[in-house]
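Q: How would the structure tokens look for this protein?
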Amino acid sequence: MKRKDFLKAMGVAGIGLTVPIKASSGSLNSGSCTPPACVLIPTETAGPFPLDLTENSAYFRQDIREDQAGVQLNLKLKIKGLENCAPMPNLRVNIWHCNKDGLYSGYSQSNNQGQTGKTYLRGYQYTDANGEVDFVTILPGWYNGRICHIHFQVYVSSSYAAISQLTFPLDIKKQIFTNNSSLYTKGADPLSFSQDNIFSDGYEYQLSTLTPNENGNGYDAYLEVTIKGEGVLGVSHVEKQTAKNIVLEQNFPNPYMDQCTIPFSVLKSSKITLQLWDLSGRKVAILIDKKLYQVGNYIFDMNKEIFDISNGSYVYEIIAENSDGIFKTSKMMTRVK
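A: Here is the predicted structure in token form.
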């Protein structure tokens, strides 16, 4: 969980946030690009340069830019289920795209030389209770046969992943390229949607908004993505689903001085992570790191010899990962000396 997502989940969003990401109402006017709700996103190829990010936790990040120059793009995707048009939480969303010059990280070949071993402009996040993920990246460039686009993949289960691509309104995108010609030295991409290898058969449900960020941090992009499956109606249902997998109890005693215990129950065999955050959204400690627990009741002993933290209130969060998904819940604790 990233810092902003954690703060949002705990109801303390806005404390010391550094990257505001939202769908802006600002304009380089092109009208609304949000498609009608709950139409299945078209399936597109994952190529030409996909990478499996599943087992590489270094890609679990919100800011995927690394050292890549370009106009900042704050991308928000909202994932909804086709069956009921409701948000789908706890899904892993991968994105990847080329840099300003049309090159992809991780590959070297005749049209993509010198990029082996590089990891820029790739990453994944997990959808929150609203079915949303946020990324900070750059507006991609283009290459022969393709207009500016971003690949994304939504993992629903071990047997189903939705794979597609998104693009942007032509007039706004071209204006950004033109206004930043020192960065985008190839100029604006010359193709129309009908000339693009992917979008020539339609792009309505893959057309993201593209608006200036109201705080001057580049541009905001927003797209609602409908995939196969059923979403959840309200956070209460999310909590019920979490309670089927993991139960977190209040630490005892609370407040505590030198030592306390954190009880939890595992209802389905899972990899368990237990971590501690302060109220500014800074991760203080990882108490349990993806350790496999079988079904049962457990107690974690927290003491000052191992985890000596300052006076104050903290949030302890438990994460259970299993074949049904990723489930999170948290509580507040206070230490006094």
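The domain at 3-227 is CATH 2.60.130.10 (Protocatechuate 3,4-Dioxygenase, subunit A).

The radius of gyration is 22 Å.

Upvote if useful.
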